Amino acid sequence: MDFKSTSHNPNDLNNHIKVRFEDVFGEPKGIHSLDCLWDITATCYACILNVCYNICTFLCAWYIAIEWAYAFVFVSFRHVWLHTPFLRWCTIECANCQRCCAMCSGCLFEPVVELIGDCLGRLKTG
């Protein structure tokens, strides 16, 4: 497992989260603040965003990563040892039931459907 990736979002999981200054703020046509104030505001926003995000990540990310790892361990365990074998068992068991139902419906309904088809086929139109 290679953790030295330059991208922290290689599978584009969170492209819907847009939090850059330009994604959040925009002045409408006809009203503008001074360019220097806009630039200072953008710089302050970016600094606070990065500092606070890094603090939250430092304090919480390792713990949350452990919690999610455990969650996916149990999901994987359940699928490998419970769900997939159960579905395979159901497939095997239901195959007999499916054959029986197909045979019964073929015996019961097929003659009736063929009779109706023959009757309707003999009708003359126009």
TrEMBL record:
Q: Which GO terms describe its molecular function?
A: molecular adaptor activity
Say yes or no: keyword S-adenosyl-L-methionine present.
no
- Example of a GO cellular component annotation carried by this entry: Golgi membrane
Principal localisation: membrane
Instruction: Output the InterPro entries linked to this UniProt entry.
Output: Caveolin (IPR001612)
Q: Where is this protein localized, as stated in its record?
A: Cell membrane; Golgi apparatus membrane; Membrane, Caveola
Which GO annotations describe the biological process of this protein? caveola assembly
The alphabetical list of record keywords is: Cell membrane, Golgi apparatus, Membrane
Q: Does the keyword Disulfide bond apply?
A: no
Give the membrane topology, semicolon-separated if more than one.
Answer: Peripheral membrane protein
Family from the record? Belongs to the caveolin family.
Q: What is the documented function of this protein?
A: May act as a scaffolding protein within caveolar membranes. Interacts directly with G-protein alpha subunits and can functionally regulate their activity.
Name-wise, this protein is: Caveolin
